[in-house]
Design brief:
Layout (H helix, E strand, L loop, with lengths): L1 E8 L2 H13 L7 E5 L15 H26 L7 H25 L4 H11 L3 E8 H13 L4 E7 L1
């Protein structure tokens, strides 16, 4: 699993010094370090950097609930002949989960991650963003320690 750290710097010189420290330390040599001076365009974001996962999860839950409601309560109330409302509720609930998850994931893929939007606002104010991609928890822990020594705001993100 890859671990991504985001560190915000108010000065470019501080970001460069931190990148050099990460690059020369034995425990963080496998890390990929990048600095960003301007926010990325939405079209440049990978699927894991969008809201597709959270939207997809919400779509599965809401779609399943609405599907079960229609199959078990609303269809029988409208006079739709259903032999077994429990089976109808389960079937339409499953269909709602699939459809809601699929549609919500597509919508979420067009929406940047909320945390990345917040970072973009700070970058618009002139701050420099550093991303550090580390393999494993040990690399992440050492990179986080080196960055914390520089008193920067640090946030974490895990990529599968």
């Amino acid at each position: 699993m890859k671990h991504v750290l985001y560190a915000r710097f108010s000065r470019e010189e501080d970001a460069i010094a931190a990148a050099e420290a990460l690059g020369t330390h034995q425990a963080t040599r496998g890390c990929h370090v990048a600095t960003h001076h301007a926010p990325l365009a939405s079209s440049e974001l990978g699927l894991t950097e969008t809201s597709s996962r959270s939207w997809g999860t919400e779509g599965v839950v809401v779609g399943g609930a609405l599907g079960a409601l229609f199959g078990g309560v609303i269809f029988p109330a409208l006079g739709v002949p259903i032999a077994a409302p429990e089976i109808a509720a389960a079937a339409t609930g499953f269909a709602g989960c699939v459809y809601g998850g699929w549609l919500s994931t597509i919508v979420g893929a067009t929406t940047p991650d909320r945390r990345l939007e917040e970072l973009a606002r700070h970058m618009s104010d002139g701050e420099v963003l550093m991303t550090v991609e580390a393999e494993g928890e040990a690399g992440e822990a050492r990179a986080a320690q080196l960055l914390a020594e520089r008193s920067v705001e640090l946030s974490r993100h895990k990529l599968v």
